[in-house]
Amino acid sequence: MTADKDGWTLSLVIPVMNEVEAVEPFLSAIDATLRDVAPRLEILFIDDGSTDGTAEALTAASERDQRVRWLRLTRNFGKEAAMSAGIDHAIGDAVVPMDVDLQDPPELIHEFVHKWRNEGYDMVYGVRGSRHEDTRRKRTSAGLFYSFFNRLSTTTIPSNAGDYRLIDRRIVEALRQLPERSRFMKGLFSWPGYRSVGVYYDRPARQVGNSKFNFWKLWNFALDGLVSFSTWPLRVWSYIGGVVALLSFFYIVILLTKVMIFGSQVPGYASLMTAILFFGGMQLISVGVLGEYISRLFIEAKQRPLYLIEHDSGADRKPLPQARPAVKVDIS
Ligand code: UDP
Ligand code: MG
């Protein structure tokens, strides 16, 4: 928790990509619900390479409203990188990453803040209650992913918690120390530890615009998460290899005994073919898994920056306005 309890700042971090129609409704919703959630509010948008006039909408908003600040990345770096840029640049004592499409209900932030300030939690994450807005396929695959991930990884992530959460400055500083290029944020948020708690909510459908994630993107996202947080897929092959070698040894003994007793038998095309194809497949899968890790090592080794910033509307910013008049203490 921050030492400066009275003058603290809350930062909302909102990655946006081609969301021109969503910016204004988002800001009105924030104004309607979060006007005095914190003494100072920073509304930090990260324009992740939009091509549709989002930048103009953000410029207008930041000129009109001093609490709004926006960063423009030089191109589309993806939501995870954009969110990292926002978390790196946010000035708040607590930071809330959220989507612009109002799928993350702003009023929940009151509860986040309450748990953070009054109950001493360092992270308060939103947990999607019913997920009825998702298709059944998405719900099942998400469920499978969480149980698979938590079984394989030493970092456990809470099921059905998205990026929508409040994180204390201590966690923000911890996140800034994690240099990796594969930013699986759900995992990274959990990695530092600290005290955390979930808050249930119903996630509404997107208000305007379309989802930027299709099945293929989500699959790659899941793969990225697993590979970044577990070495089990890499190590499992030693065990599979061990079991196969052991079984093969018994089979060799059986075969040799048979040949010695009954003499050589030529038929066996089917079993030979099955074995060749099966083990060929297994070998390719294991090489593929190696490839997943090596490609990530390759990306890490290059040490390229995670994102590039083209413009920061807050580069020469004045201090954030106070939401409520500061209480004057008379010390005379
Ligand atoms: N987003 C982004 N960069 C991308 C894709 C998405 O900054 O490459 C932003 C998007 O503008 C939105 C948020 O990430 O504010 C969540 O995206 P979306 O609503 O499409 O995801 P979903 O809710 O369908 O998972
Ligand atoms: Mg959305």
UniProtKB/TrEMBL annotation:
Location (main, coarse): membrane
Q: Which GO terms describe its cellular component?
A: plasma membrane
GO MF annotation terms: glycosyltransferase activity
Q: Which UniProt keywords apply?
A: Glycosyltransferase, Membrane, Transferase, Transmembrane, Transmembrane helix
Q: Membrane topology type, per the record?
A: Multi-pass membrane protein
Extract the Pfam families matched here.
Glycos_transf_2 (PF00535)
Q: Which CDD domains match?
A: DPM1_like_bac
Coiled-coil residues are none
The cellular location(s) given in this protein's UniProt record come to: Membrane
Instruction: Write the protein's name.
Output: Glycosyltransferase family 2 protein
* Native organism: Kushneria phosphatilytica
